[in-house]
Write a structure and sequence with these properties.
Elements (H helix, E strand, L loop, with lengths): L1 H13 L10 E5 L5 E4 L2 E4 L6 H16 L3 E7 L4 E7 L5 E3 L4 E2 L100 H6 L11 H9 L15 H12 L3 H19 L4 H16 L3 H17 L3 H16 L4 H19 L9 H21 L1
Parallel strand pairs: 1-4
Antiparallel strand pairs: 1-2, 2-3, 4-5, 5-6, 5-7
Helix pairs in contact: 5-6, 6-7, 7-8, 8-9, 8-10, 9-10, 10-11
Amino acid sequence: MMSRLSRDKKRDQKNGGPAAPAAPIDVRVPATGPGASVGGVPVAAAPGEELQQAVLRHLHDIARAGGHPVHATIHDERIGYVVPLEVSPDGSSRFTAEPVGIAPPEVPRQAEWPVAAAEEPVRHDPPPHLLRQTPEPVQDAAPTYALRPLPDAPPPGTVLPPTGEFGPPPVMDARPLPVPEPLPLPVAPPTPPPAPVPFAEPVLLMDDPDPKPTPVRGFDAVAEAVLGDGPPAVPGGAAAFLAEPVARINEAVREGRIDVAAELAERTAAQAAQALGPEHPEVLRLYELTAYVAYLGGEPVRALRLSLDLARVQHRARDAEAAYGNVQSAATAWRAVRDPLQGLDLGRELLTLWTELAAGEGPAAEDPDKLEKARARMLRLAERARAAE
């Protein structure tokens, strides 16, 4: 040991004293991008490795190759600080001065740079080429500060590998210099509350303090009766004999046996018309159920024609609500007709009756938007028919 110290002393005397510390290595970590630069040398992270881990690993390699600590000035644009750091050959690192804040970039904060403790000493053969040190005037050593222990920190003396993360300046005891306030995480500006949307017709809403909900019409009303969402449609009086077959039809629909429901609905409607007359209210309801089952079974044309026939009967009887309900059923089935020429023929028949209902009083006249949409579909069908010629 004494001989080695003597050799070191002679070398220092020959060289004119101990070597001056090397200039800090300039490290640049841009706000965006996959890599950094260490002393002008590009450094990229390996797959699955954080960029700050790659930078620390590179600095550790330099310190280990030279056999002495290296100083680095890390310009980290991601966190808005210039971090002066010393990395030792054993893998430990420490701050050598207070970090200095820089203008924060307009990107989310991505990484932090805490100092790392020393790692287990590992024997490494020195590389063939050592880094050349650039002499500079000896500076006063930076004051050493004791770090506040974290709640989960290991006991003193525990050797930890470098974490590969740097961070904002740690909280220190007895600071002799003013410390810049830590930068907060970027926070998006508060979203202003949405402006209140005025009612489309405020006068009408104010004049009608108790607006009536739109009644369920068409196939939706039939579906409610079949699936049990609405009041059960149980025939009574002279039509009581229909209660059992109607219940069987509803059960078949609920179980998805549409073919069975369609056959039973056709047979029951024919028997009811013969016994009660073709325009008896219970017979008309049976035909509405038959049209709905036909629509479910993939027969939109039959469903449409049945619904139009029912609407005509109810229009003659001046039952505007029932007539418009079956027009809506016919419109639903019409939208399922994909052939443009057939859709045009059926649409003309539907719109003729629909326009007649809308010209009088009742729900059809109060609901003009749906009629306009049906007319717009006629124009689209006409374009498709011309394109198919």
